[in-house]
Design brief:
There is one protein chain. The protein is mainly α. The chain folds into four domains: about 100 residues, 3-Layer(aba) Sandwich (Rossmann fold); about 70 residues, Glutamyl-tRNA Synthetase, domain 2 (Orthogonal Bundle), CATH 1.10.1160; about 45 residues, no CATH class; about 100 residues, Orthogonal Bundle (Arc Repressor Mutant, subunit A). Helix content is about 45%, strand content about 5%. The strands form four sheets. A two-stranded antiparallel ribbon has the order 1-4. The protein has a two-stranded antiparallel ribbon with strand order 2-3. A hairpin with a 3-residue loop joins strand 2 and strand 3.
């Protein structure tokens, strides 16, 4: 057989075992591969639920191996037996299996069993939309997505929409909704383009559906649970994966857990030139207001508390909103970019917010 195989390779044609069948093979004893003797070399036709009528002829048929010399069955044999035993009615596979289908049909025929419905799914293309997705294009193992903080529901939701059109603008589907809505008639024939931005969008939407306890469990942070719970609105608004959420807590939101070191120049950066010293005056008003016994548990409540004070000072010509809100934001976070000061007060809590405003006043 090695000689025949080498000759076929030299002549640049496929090697077909059927052209060199031995006249007698004897009883199979398990010490060598067991082959399927293709009963007929003919053209096979079948109806694909997605691609329609397909056919392949003699070039696709050969005496393929059923059981290897080590006693293990090959995929071509095992999956057919498995599907029959499990009473599988529909087999959905990629386009690379189209050329092998005549072999499977011949085996079903030999086993006197009706084949299932075959459906060829479109290939997943890379971001360029011109070639199949590969590791070079960013393809990853499903466990990589788990490690990066993607939810399984989001990944299933995203993959279901690759090459399938639900027939409307809706993109957010629970597994039960997918089962109820999916149909092979809406599977497209052309390739489906992988889109990281869409996956991130769906994952953030799924993250937002979690209860606070569920979100915290996925987050897996060992930071102060009370502060983490209050920080959830920020994370749910901004983070698209749990890995990103954890990174945010360690970088741009690290001030939630450790009081920042302040730069006096930045603290007074928005102070009007004609009103030197108004930053201290404004922060003193904020401090007095925060010390009032009032609801400060939500950004909305804090805004209702502080904005009238800022507007009143603006009406008096004392600098107004910018002169008050900037030093408050910076004094609480130590960042030039951060959530708004109302959110910061609600997340940090009144006691911690008062302490940080006092520290800001102390350096002026």
């Amino acid at each position: 057989m090695a000689v025949f195989r080498a000759t076929a390779e030299a002549e640049k044609r496929p090697f077909l075992f059927r052209d060199h069948r031995p006249e007698t093979v004897g009883e199979w004893d398990g010490s060598r591969p067991l082959r399927f003797r293709t009963p007929r070399i003919a053209r096979y036709e079948w109806d694909d639920a997605v691609l329609g009528n397909l056919s392949a002829g003699e070039e696709a048929l050969d005496d393929f191996i059923l059981i290897k010399g080590d006693g293990y069955p090959t995929y071509n044999f095992a999956h057919v037996v498995d599907d029959i035993e499990m009473k599988i009615t529909h087999v959905m596979r990629g386009q690379e299996f189209v050329s092998s289908t005549p072999k499977f049909l011949a085996l079903y025929e030999a086993l006197d069993t009706a084949p299932p419905v075959f459906a060829t799914l479109p290939p997943i293309l890379g971001e360029s939309g011109t070639k199949k997705l590969s590791k070079r294009d960013g393809a990853k193992d499903v466990l990589d997505y788990k490690r990066e903080g993607y939810l399984p529901e989001a990944l299933v939701n995203f993959l279901a929409l690759l090459g399938w059109n639900p027939g409307g603008d809706e993109e957010f589907f629970t597994p039960d909704q997918l089962i109820a809505t999916f149909s092979l008639e809406r599977v497209q024939r052309s390739g489906a383009q992988f889109n990281d931005e869409k996956l991130l969008h769906l994952n953030r939407e799924w993250m937002r559906t979690l209860t606070d306890d569920g979100y915290l469990a996925q987050l897996g942070s060992d930071e102060d649970i009370t502060v983490l719970a209050r920080a959830l609105p920020i994370l749910k608004e901004r983070a698209q994966t749990f890995a990103e959420a954890r990174s945010m807590l360690e970088t741009e939101l690290d001030f939630l857990f450790t009081a920042p070191t302040l730069d006096p120049a930045l603290l007074t950066a928005k102070e009007p030139g004609e009103r030197p010293g108004c930053t201290k005056e404004m922060l003193s008003l904020v401090l007095a207001t925060l010390r009032l016994e009032s609801d400060q548990s939500t950004p909305e409540a804090v805004k209702e508390l502080l904005m009238p004070v800022a507007d009143l000072e603006e009406a008096k010509g004392k600098g107004g909103r910018g002169a008050m809100l900037w030093p408050l934001r910076y004094g609480l976070s130590g960042k030039e970019r951060s959530p708004d000061p109302f959110t910061l007060v609600a997340v940090l809590g009144t006691e911690e917010a008062i302490s940080r405003v006092e520290r800001a006043l102390a350096i002026l």
